[in-house]
Amino acid sequence: MVFLYTPNPITLILCPTYFMPLFFNAPHQCTPFLNLRPLIFGLKPFGSLSCIILPLLILLRIIAGNRDFYANQKMFQNKLLSKKSKLKLYWTLIRPVVTYACEKWVLKENSIQKLMIFERKILRKIFGPRKEENGLWRIKTNEELDELIKRKNITRFIKSQRLKWLGHVERLG
Length: 173
What we know:
By secondary structure, the chain is α+β, with helices and mostly antiparallel strands. The chain has 2 domains: 1-45, no CATH class; 48-172, no CATH class. The chain is built from 7 helices and 5 strands. The radius of gyration is 20 Å and the shape is elongated. The relative contact order is 0.09.
């Protein structure tokens, strides 16, 4: 078993036979976070491993975005900030963390669903519940949230980033 000491919180060790995401605890200690060897047993060392790595990387990006949201929770709960300001904070502080290097992602349906669930959870905390005519409170539906952000959801953002990256690659070549 190989342990790699890095200042990054999460490190992926890519070996010909297995990968192991490690969680960095202290300068002298590294603990295995997840062993993926049983999942890729029998695959070629440099074969199509993106089907296993990519969903894990997207999940790690969502976890990092969740961590950033709760680190800045006081700003998002502040009653003095408008909802528009909170939405801009989300777009500038949290979404870039989640969509870092998204140009390379191959989005499958389950990854899209996880990203949308993450974004809707944050948007519901930003915009809050809606008061009905009968005086009852209810959470906003997905369609209402989509209208509030003018259909600028995270999957559309990722697709636009991929198109920008394609244009950049075409100009280079």
